[in-house]
Amino acid sequence: MADRDAAFVGSIPEKYDCYLGPIYFHHYADDLAARLPVTPKMRVLEMACGTGILTERLVRRLGGQGTVVATDLNEPMIVYAQQKGFGDSGLEWRRADATKLPFEDTSFEAALCQFGLMFFRTRSLASVKPSGCSNLADTTCSAPGTASSTTRSGRSRTRRSPHFSLRTHPNFI
Question: CB-side exposure of 44: number of CA atoms within 13 Å?
């Protein structure tokens, strides 16, 4: 990480997971993972996975039917998440910048991000297959209480959510 002040090092990953996780992130992760339409052998990209709060739920949601590739720019967050023991089956950890993903185009059926978009300078989901979907929880949504999933082919579904706003950014499609 270039900016040492922005690095989550030392005891920060543990404190983030233990204190902020239950208050701010668990219920969003539950809702976001539940929205993922599961298909056999699917590959799911999670960007800005942090301490693995959403990752754990995605692995459980896939139930051995596919693979989650959990990425984060911050190595100490990934190391902490790996130690939580979600199992190795169907899970791959990668240090990666979400704005410069090291994957071939159309490598994934779905891409998810829980509260990391505000840190991305540029946004591209070329790694998601045209028939795939991108569910992105974001604190900048202009329609509180609305949740939507949008496929790259343009299909959209929207529903009310009591917990948070979810949207697919137009520049991701």
Answer: 34
Averaged pLDDT, 118-144? 53
**Total domains in the fold of the chain:** 1
- Any domain includes 164: no
CA distance 78 to 101: 16
- Inter-CA distances, 141 with 21, 47, 49, 106, Å: 21, 18, 20, 26
C-alpha 138/C-alpha 48 separation (Å) is: 12
**Spatial strand order in the sheet of 128-137:** 91-95, 66-72, 42-47, 108-114, 128-137, 146-151, 156-160
Give the pLDDT score at 24.
Answer: 83
Question: Residue 78 sits in which domain range?
Answer: 10-140
CATH number at residue 105: 3.40.50.150
Q: By three-state DSSP, how is residue 3 classified?
A: coil
Instruction: Reply yes or no on whether the pLDDT at 52 is more than 50.
Output: yes
Nearest to 66 by CA among 95, 46, 94, 83: 46
- Give the pLDDT score at 8: 76
